[in-house]
Amino acid sequence: MQKKYFETQNEKETLEFGKRLSEVLPAGSVVCLDGDLGVGKTVIARGIAMGLGIDEPVTSPTFTIIHEYESGRMPFYHFDVYRIADPDEMDELGYEEYFYSQGITLVEWGSLIEELFPEDTVYIRVEKVPGEDFDRRRIEVSAQKDIDI
What we know:
CATH class: Alpha Beta
CATH topology: Rossmann fold
CATH architecture: 3-Layer(aba) Sandwich
Strand order of the largest sheet: 1-7-6-2-5-4-3
Low-confidence stretches: none
Number of helices: 4
Mean pLDDT: 93
Radius of gyration: 14 Å
Shape: globular
Structural class: alpha/beta
Helix content: 10-25%
CATH superfamily: P-loop containing nucleotide triphosphate hydrolases
């Protein structure tokens, strides 16, 4: 597994990170996105959507579990599995249709269902950087293949 680290100084840079990520992820990619509440997971998701040319509002699907966006250069499937009590619940959602599609699938709180991910999943962990600057983030990207962000 290869790892890369990035730092962003504000929400705009975190959004730009997501846009750059969307430019290098091939169709069929699955992204496991983890981090505490309020670290910018949905900001990264918005950046990916923008990079795919999706112009509709992107919000966290906390209560619906999944939002589907089809208007970009490829489909974008945005999961939030925070409320999933057991990975078996993902079967009811037909998760495999998304994970093995020709779109990009992003799963917030993905470590809760990690055993379901394909081998080539991209893992991203976002953390606040301690200190005075509240918006500074450290982003760790782990993947089987090098991702040139």
